[in-house]
Amino acid sequence: MKNKTRTIITLLCSLLVFAVGMFRILTESLSSAPLFVAYVFAITGFIGVVANGILLRKLQSN
Description:
This protein is an all-alpha fold and 62 residues long.
């Protein structure tokens, strides 16, 4: 698997983790997950999206 493909997959997975965390924070429908876990998901997902976006931009410029 090439680096660009792996970076795109991790970018999408980080975006999914961020989306799940934000969905739990903004709605009260997922009451099984504690709110602390939702904040952890949102923060780590956001960091992953930003880091992988920067990495993907560097890979495309080369």
